Amino acid sequence: MSNSTSTDSGNSGFQKYPYDPSEAAAIIFTVLFALTTSLHAFQLISKRTWFMIPFFIGGILEIVGYIGRVIAATEAPGPYETGPYIVQTITLLVAPALFAASIYMQLGRIVLMLKADDKLFIRRTWVTKIFVAGDVASFLLQAAGGGLSASDDSNTSKLGKDIIIVGLFVQIVFFGLFVVVAALFNIRLNKNPTPSAHTLPWKKHMYTLYAVSILIFVRSIVRVVEFIQGFEGYIYSHEVFLYVFDATMMFIAMGIMNVVHPGEVAVIVRGQLQGEKDVESGSELVESR
């Protein structure tokens, strides 16, 4: 990954890639994300885990983003086309926000499965609404900022960078609050478990939720530091940070969700709801007689 001297006219000091992008690394992660995303597609459909659709779309964005980097690598040492740069910037920025949306909804399904609404200090339905709303705000801010940051105008580029920072901070704040909500729920459930908690496999799904949350949280912090340092900062200037703290962490997050897929929770919840409907239908039939 040798340093590239290509700069963008009109935006003094700004370089799309202050190094020669690694084609090999981009191809490897394109393939890795294609594999895990394909498995997620199969799991999503076979287990009808529709709340994992955002997670699957996030995987698609990761694939598109690293394809964009493959294209950029073929243009080294520049000048680099703006199109692939904008595509990879936006897709790799916002994909984790889509992962987060599914994680937020997963907690709601675990609570529903355990019939443990009373263990949350806010209503279960509000948990999903509040955190997904924050996630959408983060997604839109990062997407808008990512597009503006690639502008040849230095003022527009700086504005885009600032918007990205705000979007990432929103993501970090909501993720932090979410982990607190999940941890408090976990503690209360351990102290006073519901009957379902003794028999259903909820703990492994909570641990998975924590693991993926931590990976996204750490990744977001590193990216905040990257954009605070600016386009001439140490993190932005060294491609290794992208592959260690973004590509690798997000691939691990997707892989973890492949291994401990929440489809198990979805199947249990559907069975419980169907059982409740059957009981209600039986009661209505008896009453009608």
Automatic annotation (TrEMBL):
Membrane topology designation: Multi-pass membrane protein
Enumerate the InterPro entries for this protein. RTA1
Q: Where in the cell is it found?
A: Membrane
Pfam families recorded for this chain? RTA1
UniProt keyword annotation of ATP-binding present? no
Q: Alphabetically list the UniProt keywords.
A: Membrane, Transmembrane, Transmembrane helix
GO CC, any one term = membrane
Q: Does the keyword Transcription regulation apply?
A: no
- Residues spanning the membrane: 24-42, 49-73, 85-105, 126-144, 164-187, 207-228, 240-260
Q: Which PANTHER family match?
A: PROTEIN RTA1-RELATED
Q: What protein name does the entry list?
A: RTA1 like protein
